[in-house]
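Key idea: predict the complex, not the pieces.
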Amino acid sequence: MKKIYVPRDAAAKALGSDEVATALAHALAARGEEAQIIRNGSRGMIWLEPLVEIEENGTRLAYGPIAADQVDDLLAGKITSLGPVEDIPFFAKQNRLTFARCGLIDPLSLADYRAHGGLMGLSRAAAMSAADIVAEVTASGLRGRGGAGFPTGIKWKTVAEASASQKYIVCNADEGDSGTFADRMIMEGDPFCLIEGMAIAGLATGATRGFVYIRSEYPDAIEVMEAAVTIARAEGVLGADVLGSGKAFDLEIRVGAGAYVCGEETSLLNSLEGKRGVVRAKPPLPALEGFMGRPTVVNNVLSLATIPVIFEKGAAHYASFGLGRSKGTMPIQIAGNVARGGLFETAFGMPLGALVNEIAGGTATGRPVKAVQVGGPLGAYMPPSKFDTPFAYEEFDGQGGLIGHAGVVVFDDSADMVQMARFAMEFCAVESCGKCTPCRIGAVRGVETIDRIAAGDATAIPLLTDLCETMKDGSLCALGGFTPYPVMSALQNFPDEFGATPADQAAQ
Amino acid sequence: MPRDHTDAHDPEITAIVMRHMGLEGPLLPILHALQGEFGYIPDAARPIICDALNITRAELHGVISFYHDFRSAPAAKHCLKICRAEACQAVGGKALSERVLAQLGLDWGARRADGALMVEPVYCLGLCACAPAAMLDGKLIARATVEKITARLTEAGL
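Result:
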């Protein structure tokens, strides 16, 4: 039977894919035509959503963006196809490892998941010793995809070697960074991949319980993950005997409550425990004293969702991609004022400018790019003069930036950099957990100081610089510690907008 | 959807609280469930939660007041959220929210006089590649414009 794919991804739905699916069902019935409508995840080409795929003779032809009132023309063959999905240049240029199945399969069909390589990694891991599983992850070179870039294998080893009556795997799905949506996409498009990764983490560390902490702003992801966990439990992927291995692992979905700071791992743990999402000092590391004071792996969605492919294809295969110490691939999210926005998974090392100009096609408005903010609200504003920076951890660090969760937000030349710096401080003030004084009070003073600068008082610039230093040095977590990145990068890369004199610039 | 009345009764609250007592760290799930049922966390729930979890009223208040999502008073019947974050700002999100607020004659967080509508800021809905983003009662709107939002409000009878 003919298969028609209409994404159920939140971005596709926000652009009308539910209405398209309903209209298609009606139109098919009216034509007396039989076809199966499958609600897949998104292929990541968001500018083409709703992207409808029609499969005939084993080829999936793409059509998009499709509106509900176009479905009759679509079924009558009056709409020109974009060609096979895999041949669309934006898609063809990717190395899809983590996102290999996202958009390809029915997210809630375990049979479809298995048919596309799913559970091969877990089956392989189930036959390995815990130490060998950890060694495989270490050999892959995988680093924390949430932003910190800490080697995943080392974290797992710490938890594996800790002795406790109960250990936990906690998945950080509190994806609050503006410009990022990869966690949401994979949870909505390939939820079993995350579940499989968490089960492997459980086998590796001896943790038998897990939590996925999803932000409340993602109702679609919560719904899909809840359904996937129920299916995985019924099919023996989760439970007392994971895939017949004799080992137990089960997990629960938990929902955040609108606090950005809970994306910080220790805040997240407090929140899971039912406390205020206040940051904890480290040490003790969560790996030793995490959830309920017990050894806990806290990993980002993308880190855990990358584990299955590492076990399916081997650590060496994964590590063969990338640049320097940034091994493997990164699902980069290109957003904001951009012609072709979406998710582009590629090996580390592609220059930032190639991503922005060649892959994403520059700005949507057609105006020149002024700056791109990489790594969310705590990431630096990179001007076009830094566009040759390769997309990788150390390389960005060397340019005063960070890749964070790999969100790239593009701004055209109408962006007001003083206001963007002000917003960074304002956001920090709204979301600060209040534990560290430089963050709690500094962010408020930062807004006031930038308002002085905006009113023409250049003498406030050294004060702002000094405040940023204090926040950087005096905050426990990245919220207070990294808010200076967008502020200082705006000031340093666009000094004229702040009214800085050459002497001020030299002083920085 | 929250119920249409605001009188929470102790037995119902107790039942919701007790349903979550088997969880590790049950407080957030309890608060979400109460708010899902009543539209806010009723004052009557506080002593019941404190007893069940053996926490102080101050600790509970600390948690409820920490999170943006939790409300101690009934919300407006409908809630429009508009994203204020960077990706949306890059495509005119700030002007959009200012125009919508002006058109409705509302400020962030304020309820309309008839209690039917409020507008809240949100920091990222994950629609950053099809921004600006908004959400009316859980239904997402991508590439939002004043016209699109107005049409949705009209559809909802607002």
